[in-house]
Input
Amino acid sequence: LDFVLVIPETFDSDVLRSGQHKIELYLNDAGLNKVMGRVSDIIDEYTDAFQQTAFAQLNLDETQQEALLKPIKIEKQNVADDREVWGERLGGMLPYFIFILCLQGAMAPAADLGAGEKERGTL
Output
């Protein structure tokens, strides 16, 4: 048994009359599973259908529907120039490249030191 979905007896497609429904999902969430995602996808389809039915009953056009579903919309405007953006990105990666180069520079002497000690029999 992967999961149990409990749908209330008051479940009705007319959300204007019945209001919001609470559907309970019982599952063992200890392991890696995708039950919640799969159930959410199915519920989202029903949610969209119920919303469209309610909007049709209220005689709302698409702009009014969008305003009800997302009353506040953020539009992002970047005021930084390209030089600043690329400087931020490259400046964040540069220390990692320097660290890798430092480790790479230390590898050759370390290998030579180990080989020399082994050749002399002191290792």
